[in-house]
Every structure is written in structure tokens, then in C-alpha cells.
């Protein structure tokens, strides 16, 4: 390949120098734009890394707090609600209102247990059951006695009872 003499043909010299200068300007522009974009992305990744580390620390703290709270709750479980279920109310043909009133009378005997430690409930279980079973409940000129079928004491204390006797007061 023949390379022309640069002294005789100055057009070629201007052409190649234009290509070289254009390439250098383009390369400089590319580096400036790429550097600016990369710098922006690098700063954004740094901010996100800081946020992620803060969120991880916050998450670890919350998990630690929840674990401590759960351990405290396991030590101090208390009864939060008391429910009573009548198993054989249909045998005595009681209406829904009478069943509700009977449940409320039984619940009145057990209301003071709400908020009590479960360990305390477990230690006085027999006293609770005998208090419910030995009481006579009056409803619409009838007296009812109940027998405990089952007794569960967790955060919700549940007492399943059945009516064993019905007497008319008249």
C-alpha cells in the first residue's frame, strides 16, 4: 500500500489529523459521560448500601426485641378471656336467650380469673371446677346445676359444661 507524501498532499494530512482529533474528542466525551453516569450509579449504590445496613440493623433489633418479649410472655402467660360452652342445652329445650343468660351467670363466677397467671389457674383448677359445679343457677323459675366436661386454660380459658339437673321453683 502506498502512503502519499504529506508535504505534497496537505488534504490527506488534514483528513488524518481530523480523524485523530475527532477520535480523541469522542473518546474524551465518552469517558466524561461514562464517568458521570458511573459516578451517579456509584453514589446511588453507596446510599442504598447504607440504607440496607440500617434496615438490617433495625430488623435485627426488632427480632431481638420480639424474642425477648416472647420469652417474657412465656414466663408470664395470663388468661385474656374466659368462654363457657353448654353442650346439652337442646336436651332441656332452652331458648337461645336462656342459654345466653345461663352462660352469663357461669361467666360471672369466672370473671375474676381474667388477667390471672395460667400457673395460678392450674394450681386452683379443682376449686374453680367445684365452684361452678356446686352453684345452683336460677333462670325463669327453674334451678339448674351443671357438670364440667372439659377445662382448658391457655391465653383463653374455655370451660365446657353440661346441664345435669333442672328443678322447678314453684
From TrEMBL:
Segments crossing the lipid bilayer: 12-32
This protein's record includes keyword 4Fe-4S: no
Keyword annotations from UniProtKB, A to Z: Membrane, Transmembrane, Transmembrane helix
Record-annotated Sporulation membrane protein YtrI C-terminal domain positions: 80-163
UniProt signal peptide: none
Pfam families: YtrI_sporulation (PF26347)
InterPro entries named among the record's database cross-references: YtrI (IPR048198), YtrI_C (IPR058620)
Protein name in UniProt: Sporulation membrane protein YtrI C-terminal domain-containing protein
Organism in which the protein naturally occurs: Shouchella clausii
